Amino acid sequence: MIVRSRIFQFSTNSFPIRFALAPPSKLHCRQYITSSKMFPIARAKSLDHLVLTVKDLNASVHFYERFLGMHHTIFESRGAQRNALSFGQQKINLHISGKEFEPKAQNVHPGSSDLCFLVEDSVDDILERLKDEEVEVLEGAKIVNRTGAQGRLRSLYIRDPDGNLIEVSNIA
Questions:
Q1: Could you tell me the end-to-end alpha-carbon distance of the chain, in angstroms, rounded to an integer?
Q2: Any catalytic annotation for residue 102?
Q3: pLDDT digits 0-9 by tens, 125-145
Q4: Which residues form the VOC domain (predicted)?
């Protein structure tokens, strides 16, 4: 009969604990594993902001204000005027292509993002409004079922002026 080690993991309020129980005939000094490499360096709790690189600032601001009800804000940082879109407790900073602020992502270019927004309005109502405004809705102009960070979603997909994929969703 072969008896194998079992590894157990549980969490305390401050960090995860992982240890191994060896079979009785194989007890040795590595019975309890407490390596610091098993603990995260930092633990993310929320997303504060993200950055979109855009070709046309005005077109992007208009799109996100009109289609998602965001608010355009202008602020100063390190002596430069910056643009952002605010909604809830989140913010999207807008960088104009070729005029990005440092530091920046390694490969920045407009149209490379895929973003999902949870919305208050029914996606059924939004779909009808988009059709009335002749906005192209992807996935056959239908509402589709997806899975997000908070569980099942009912979603529709459109593109912003730069070609970023925008998912508009309700929690199912």
A1: 49
A2: no
A3: 999 999 999 999 999 999 999
A4: 46-171
Give the C-alpha distances (Å, rounded to integers) separating 104 from 20, 51, 98, 99: 42, 9, 11, 11
Amino acid at 73: T
The CB-side HSE value for 133 (13 A sphere, CA atoms) comes to 13
Q: Of 20, 110, 1, nearest to 56 (Cα)? A: 110
Query: Under DSSP, is residue 49 helix (H, G, I), strand (E, B) or coil?
Result: strand
Question: Among the options 128, 133, 136, 167, which is catalytic?
Answer: 167
The DSSP element (H or E) to which 39 belongs, if any, is none
Max CA separation in the chain (angstroms):
73
% of the chain exceeding 90 in pLDDT: 72
From 67, 101, 71, select the one nearest 85 (Cα to Cα): 71
List of residues 6+ apart from 97 with CB closer than 8 A: 53, 54, 55, 108, 109, 110
Domains and CATH numbers, the chain: 6-38 (no CATH), 49-171 (3.10.180.10)
Say if CB 84 and CB 91 are below 8 A apart: yes
Examine the pLDDT at 3 and tell me if it is beyond 70. no
pLDDT at 116 over 90: yes
